[in-house]
Specification:
single chain; alpha+beta; Alpha-Beta Plaits; 2 domains
Length: about 260
């Protein structure tokens, strides 16, 4: 089995030191005018290989091939702000199917998301054919606990749990799993941007995420790996509602120090 590691081609290396400047683990130095690792300990983030002008650094057994950057791609700040400003949680979806290409784009956004300590611990379950069966299991869980919750929450009392309580008849649901929940949430955010860019509506289903983590039957049914938990669930589909304006928000609360 190949050992994951950083390998430096000293014939290509020009000793510029750029790799050491970006090394998070401070594990690279210039020795005899060539880059060299200091010790075996490394988080294998790949920053060094991404910055090297000579392609002298290889990441051995650390994943798929790297993509060359051929131009600067900058998002328009106002477009990004408006995407956030007019974004709404969607609970009313069209029956239109989502193409496989778009689903793969959304999953790719999750896969490429940065993770703490380069854990790359995020994985995904796409609920399609089994979506209704899994939702039925979650509905059963919530109906069991609802009478207790109703005692404390008027909002819960007004919320009826029907058979499509979690997924609202959306065509696709993606459960995001991770060892570190924050990594899964970061992936969800990036995936939402790609979904929005493709004209999809998104709902973050915190309720289903709770049910998935609380129910052994659901964990087993969707095969959540040991050591991971559901970090977030994205309900996806083409929206069947058109919001005409943004919603009110509190004023900015910030201190500059």
């Amino acid at each position: 089995m190949t050992r994951k590691r950083v390998m430096i081609n000293t014939e290509k290396c020009i000793g510029c030191g750029m790799c050491g400047n970006v090394c998070v683990a401070h594990n690279l130095e210039i020795r005899n005018k060539k880059a060299a690792t200091i010790m075996d300990s490394c988080i294998l983030c790949g920053q060094c290989s991404a910055v090297c002008p000579q392609k002298a650094i290889l990441m051995i057994d650390c994943g798929d091939g790297q993509v060359e950057k051929t131009e600067e791609n900058r998002l328009n700040p106002n477009d990004v702000l408006n995407t956030i400003r007019f974004r709404r949680s969607i609970r009313n979806f069209k029956e239109t199917e989502i193409s496989k290409d778009i689903i793969e784009q959304i999953l790719e956004a999750g896969r490429l998301t940065h993770t703490a300590k380069n854990m790359q611990d995020v994985s995904f379950i796409v609920l399609d054919k089994e979506k209704k069966r899994i939702e039925t299991m979650a509905v059963k869980v919530f109906r069991t606990v609802k009478p207790i919750v109703d005692l404390f929450s008027p909002l819960a009392r007004n919320n009826k749990i029907n058979d499509s309580f979690f997924f609202f008849n959306a065509p696709i649901v993606i459960v995001i799993m991770a060892k570190d929940k924050t990594n899964g949430i970061l992936a969800a955010q990036n995936m939402e941007y790609v979904a929005e860019a493709n004209g999809l509506g998104v709902l973050y289903s915190g309720f289903f995420t709770m049910a998935a983590n609380a129910s052994r039957k659901i964990k087993k049914a969707i095969s959540i790996p040991k050591g991971k938990k559901a970090a977030m669930t994205l309900v996806l589909g083409y929206p069947n509602v058109n919001f005409l304006r943004s919603t009110p928000h509190k004023k900015l609360n910030v201190r500059y120090m």
